[in-house]
What we know:
By secondary structure, the protein is an alpha+beta fold. The protein is built from ten helices and 13 strands. It has two domains: 4-182, Ribosomal Protein S5, domain 2, CATH 3.30.230.10; 188-359, Alpha-Beta Plaits. Bound molecules: alpha-D-galactopyranose (GLA).
Amino acid sequence: MKKQIIAHASGRINIIGEHTDYNDGFVLPAAIDKKSTFKVWKNGTESTCNILSEHFQITHQFDLKDFQPVKSGWENYVMGVVSELQKLGADLSGFDGSFDGTVPIGSGMSSSAALECSLAVALNVLFDLGFDNWQLIKASQMAEHHFVGIKCGIMDQFASVMGRKNQVMLLDCRSLEFEYFPLELGDYQLLLLDTNVSHSLANSAYNERRLQCEIGVKALQQKYPTIVNLRDVSLVKLMGFKKKLSEVVYNRCKHVISEDNRVLAATKALKAGKLDQLGELIYESHHSLQYNYEVSCKELDFLVDLTRNEANILGSRMMGGGFGGCTINIIKKDFVEEFIEKAALAYQTKFDRTLTPYQVSIEDGITVE
Ligand code: GLA
């Protein structure tokens, strides 16, 4: 019988730390119970691959010796991973595969990283490639840069692979050192509310934000040549430089630097069981993403505003890249059902759209069968 490898890789949540990863900052993500599942097996050919998306019921064929990105679509995630593994020296032969998943697409839970990582892990086992987790994480990230065209940071692929049951991870995106610690929320829990919108400018706006941070760094380097990126800049230093930066660039930098501070403060608060403080930091994060980084949207803002007068909700903010997707909320367990009903009705009335709630659990990132 053919040897078939089945790899599962997770979507992720992020407690706090948005748009900090590609600025060498800090993030606080965890892997969740929503997964991408990739099955692969060798097909006996030298270099032909056939991959079926079970969701779209479309098969994509490509030749390992000669393939290019398509205009857009899931095919690029698949071929991108293959291409990056080849760059690392993977000696692949023809294989077939199929994938499916439970990470909602466009929800900010990183279905794309889950897809990339599940394939990278599956191929690593099928062809006995011997790559370590960090090589698979970086190959998956680079697939996104080179085949999908999004210059994403490392957070999503990191969380997808390294996630551990009931643990959040504080990752230093500069040193790549990370620490696991349990998410202990007592009478509270996480609740994601999916706006079910995914605005089309998300990809170009993402790359534009990254560029604006680089412009800020270049300007700061004129005066402080040792600065490598925003990780090296304090808020005080940035404020002293305000007149030399455009308002937009200043605000982008302000978000990143203050968000890094919030991640560290939130980690401290969480470890000390100070959930009120954690909640406040989460609200501050949203405020900064909305006004300084400008990656929120009216649907996300509406959902966050809806929580502000609720004594049973400690914090709420947009999660992930932005321009749609989910809010993440810290909510009293016995208030969840009531609030979902209330929020769904308000959201439907305001936008004529369905709101989708997710009560996710934190799970191991990857498993292989
Ligand atoms: C997307 C990217 C991540 C990260 C977040 C924002 O999910 O893939 O690398 O930058 O946006 O925090």
